[in-house]
Structure formats: C-alpha cells, structure tokens
C-alpha cells in the first residue's frame, strides 16, 4: 500500500479530447473534414490566443484549401475536425499553458494544448531521420514522419520521474534548482536513462540530486508535460532525515525538510506565476515558501500528501 494516493487527477491528465486516431490513416476523411475544420495557431513558447475564457480557433481553410503538411490533426469535437499549426507571427491576446492552468482551464482545453504542444515541439526537431539524417515529411495527420524510402518515425516522448520524499511521518523534502528564486521549492525529478526501470531511476536521481538513499518507492500517477514533450511519472519514497544532504550533480542549490504545516501554509499562498514574455516562474509577494502551480503534477502530489495527514 502507498503511504498516500493522489486525491485528484493531475490537470494535464484530465484530457477530454477525442483524438479519433482511426482518422489519421484515412487521408480522404481528413480531406473531407478539412472544409469545416477548426485550426489552433500556436505561437512562440507555446502561446495561443485565449479570449473570453476560451481558445480562439480559425477556419482551417484560412491556412490552405486542403490538409496542410504543416498542421497536426488533434482529433474531433462534436463532429468537427481539430488541427493545430505553429505560427511564430501570432498576435492577439496570447497566453501559454502555464498561465492558463490557474484560469482554470477545462479538461477539453487541457487535452488540446497538451497534444498540440507536444506534437509541434516534436516536429520542430524531427525534420531528419535519427539514424542517417535522411529528410522526413509529416504523415498520418502529423502523427508520424516518413523518409523517402518509407522508414517511419513517431512522436518522441521523454519519460521522467518526479518523487515526493517523506520521512514516514510529518516531513517532506523539497529542493530548489540553481536558477530559481530563493523561496521556490518543489519535488525532485529527473529523466529516465536508457535500460533503466522507473524504480531504479527514482533511486539514482534522488541520490544524485540530494545524496539520499530512498526506500519504499510507490507509484502515484502520471501527467503529460509538453515542455517540450515529456511524460512525468509521479512517485513517493521514504528517506532518513538524519542522512546528510549532498548536492553532487549541481542541479539543486539547496533542499530542506519541511513540516506538513509549513507546506499547508505554502499551498494556501498559491503557486508560481509565469512571466508572459519569458515563460518563467515568479514568486507571489511575501511568501516564505512557494510551491508549483496547479499545472504541475508536483502540486497534486504535494496536496495529496498534505491531505493524507489531516
């Protein structure tokens, strides 16, 4: 049994988008649907137009007369095909996914943006085949890329673990990255290495980042993280607070054990806020300890741990 369980589904895991994956290989259906399709334009750093509490969609015909290889097919909403395209010149009332998370956005919008950003970010770095550099072109509504000889590449997802370390009682370890302001802390995380299980990754990353030996590792849940195309896999694990902290890999500037009451107070203060022009987080005024906003599975995990101690 896990020490606690997530008390809600992480925000970006609540997708209500019908991906209609059977249509991706049906070129004729995609062509027929294009005439009435809606198009989401995605600007720099994943910004989209968002007005009156909703995404702003264009007619797909404004981009081209038929499905464009530049666009990616997201799915279907009430029989209408949905596509997205990168648009570096996008203007208007722009918001990125981090800013929209505290709106709060609905499950449909979360699903649309998670898929659109991950796909567009993948295409931006996948124009050439990974083996020999052969040029590739989009296929299947943007869900693959094909070389001239028929070899096919599929969207890449990078798995990463994120772990809440607790002491088996009322304390949790939170760390601050080198680039973060002094009050900003979160859970520890890291990418899964080749040939590595998730549990061994948790052990390795926690040891590398703060020098702790963790045990009783338990899986909690997952969330897509399209920055640029990751999947966050949430865990909790226990460690000895008496073991010295060692910051060996240079990623963590400091880490401290916080009590449940301290974390509860931080949660009540809100989450990180993003600067629109940079997409970076800034602290709420006057808070001693700040935790991630609702977009992150880190906050869901922390909230669940706090709630379990009531």
UniProtKB/TrEMBL annotation:
It catalyses: a 5'-end NAD(+)-phospho-ribonucleoside in mRNA + H2O = a 5'-end phospho-adenosine-phospho-ribonucleoside in mRNA + beta-nicotinamide D-ribonucleotide + 2 H(+). It is an enzyme of class 3 (hydrolase). One of its GO terms (biological process) is NADP+ catabolic process. GO terms for cellular component: cytosol. It holds the Pfam family NUDIX. GO terms for molecular function: metal ion binding; NADH pyrophosphatase activity. PROSITE patterns: NUDIX, NUDIX_BOX. InterPro entries: NAD-cap_RNA_hydrolase_NudC (IPR050241), NudC-like_C (IPR049734), NUDIX_hydrolase-like_dom_sf (IPR015797), NUDIX_hydrolase_CS (IPR020084), NUDIX_hydrolase_dom (IPR000086). Its cofactor is Mg(2+); Zn(2+). Its EC number is 3.6.1.22. Keywords: Hydrolase, Magnesium, Manganese, Metal-binding, NAD. Gene3D superfamilies: 3.90.79.20, Nucleoside Triphosphate Pyrophosphohydrolase. Residues 155-281 form the Nudix hydrolase domain. Belongs to the Nudix hydrolase family. NudC subfamily. This is NAD(+) diphosphatase.
């Amino acid at each position: 049994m896990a020490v606690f369980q997530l008390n809600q589904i992480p925000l970006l895991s609540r997708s209500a988008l019908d991906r209609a994956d059977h249509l991706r290989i049906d070129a004729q259906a995609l062509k027929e649907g294009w005439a009435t399709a809606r198009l989401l334009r995605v600007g720099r750093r994943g910004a989209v137009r968002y007005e009156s509490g909703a995404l702003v969609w264009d007619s797909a015909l404004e981009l081209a007369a038929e499905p464009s290889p530049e666009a990616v097919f997201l799915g279907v909403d009430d029989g209408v095909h949905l596509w997205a395209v990168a648009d570096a010149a996008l203007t208007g009332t722009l918001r990125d996914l981090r800013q929209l998370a505290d709106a709060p956005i609905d499950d449909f919008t979360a699903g649309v943006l998670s898929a659109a950003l991950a796909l567009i970010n993948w295409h931006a770095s996948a124009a050439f085949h990974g083996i020999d550099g052969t040029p590739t072109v989009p296929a299947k509504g943007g869900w693959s890329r094909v070389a001239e000889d028929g070899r096919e590449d599929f969207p890449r997802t990078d798995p990463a673990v994120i772990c809440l370390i607790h002491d088996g009682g009322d304390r949790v370890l939170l760390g601050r990255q080198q680039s973060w302001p002094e009050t900003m802390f979160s859970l520890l995380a890291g990418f899964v290495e080749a040939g590595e299980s998730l549990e061994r990754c948790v052990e390795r990353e926690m040891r590398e980042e703060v020098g702790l030996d963790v045990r009783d590792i338990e899986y909690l849940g997952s969330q897509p993280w399209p920055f640029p195309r990751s999947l966050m896999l949430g865990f909790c694990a226990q460690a000895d607070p008496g073991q010295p902290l060692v910051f060996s890999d240079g990623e963590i500037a400091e880490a401290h054990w916080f009590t449940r009451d301290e974390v509860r107070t931080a949660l009540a203060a809100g989450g990180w806020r993003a600067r629109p022009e940079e997409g970076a987080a800034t602290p709420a005024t006057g808070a001693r300890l700040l935790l991630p906003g609702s977009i992150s599975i880190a906050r869901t995990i922390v909230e669940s741990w706090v709630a379990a101690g009531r």
